[in-house]
Predict the structure.
Amino acid sequence: MKIAMTLSNKSLLETRFRPTLHGLICGFAMQPDQSIQTLGGDELRSALDRPGTVVWLHFNVRVGQSRDWIARCDHLSEAARRFLLEHDDRKRIEQTGETLLGVISDVRHDFDLDDFDPEHIASLRFYMDASCVISTRLQPCSTADQLRTEIKQGHYFDSTAKLLVHLFDSQVTRLGETIERVRVMLDDIEDEVLAGRVRGQHAQLGSIRRLAVRLNHHFGPEHRMLQRLCRRLPNWFGAVDAAALQDVAEEFRELVDDLTETQERAKLLQEELAARLAEQTNSNLYILSVFTAVLLPPSLIAGIFGMNVMGVPGVQDGGDMAFWWVMLGMGAISGLILLLLAYWRRLF
C-alpha cells in the first residue's frame, strides 16, 4: 500500500508540474458547443486533431522551444514550417491548395507618434487552414494581443475565416485611430501656422511625414494582398465571410488613401511654413536695410568730422554753433533718405 501511495503521489506531482511549452503566447480551442478551451503543453497536438474545433496557437519564435515545436508539428507541411520560422518580413499572402500563408504588419504597444521608430512596426506570420490558425511573431503585436484578450473574455469564432476577418478588422481599427491622431496633430499645427505662431513646427511636420510614409509602406501592400485574396478564396470561406473580407479590403483602401492625403497635407503645411518663415526673414532684412540706409550718411559725416586732421570745418573757427549745424545736416540727410524711400515704395 505504501508503494501504491508513493506511485500515486509521484503521478500527481508529474501531472501538477508537467513542463509547459515556453514561448506559447496563447492557445485556444473553440469547440462546437461554443465553449473556449485554453490550451497548453501536450494539449496542443490533440486539439489540432479534434474534429469541428477551431484552434488558434500564437508563438514567440524568439524562444527556442517554440521553434522546436513548430519544426516537429505533424499538422504542418514542411513548407509551412519553414515559412513560420523565416525572418523575411516581405508582406504577402500565399495560397497553397486549401491553406493560407501570410506575413502582415502590426504596430507595437509602445507605438509613439511623437518619437516614431521603424522598430515600432512589427510583423505577424500565420498559417491557416479550415480548422487551425498558427501565428508567430518576433516582437509584441498589439492586434494579436487584442484578439487574445477578446477570446479570453468569451469572443467565440466558429471558423478560421471569421478569425482572419476579425484580425484584419482590428488592424483597420488600430490604423484608423493612429491616422485620426495624426490628423489632430496636423489640425493643431495648421491653426498655429495660420495664426502666425511659427515656432518649431518643421520638426513635427517632418516626423509626421516620415510616419505616414512608413505606415503607407507597411500597410499599403495589405490592401493589394486582400484584393487578390478576395478574388481567389479557399473553399472553406463562406459567402458571408467573403463579403466581410471584401468590406475590410475596402476599408484598407480608404485608410491608404487617408495616409496619402496625410502625406500631401503635411508637405503643403511644410511649404506654407517655409513661405511664412521666408516672408518674416525678408521683412526683418528690409527693416535692417532701411535702418542701414538711414544711418549710413550720418555715420559717414560723423566719421569725417571725427578724423584727427587739420582743416576739418568747425574745429578751429566754427564757433559755438558748428556742432548743431552738423547735427542738423545729418538729420536733414536722413529725412531726405526716408522721403525718397517712401516715394520709391509708392511707385513700385
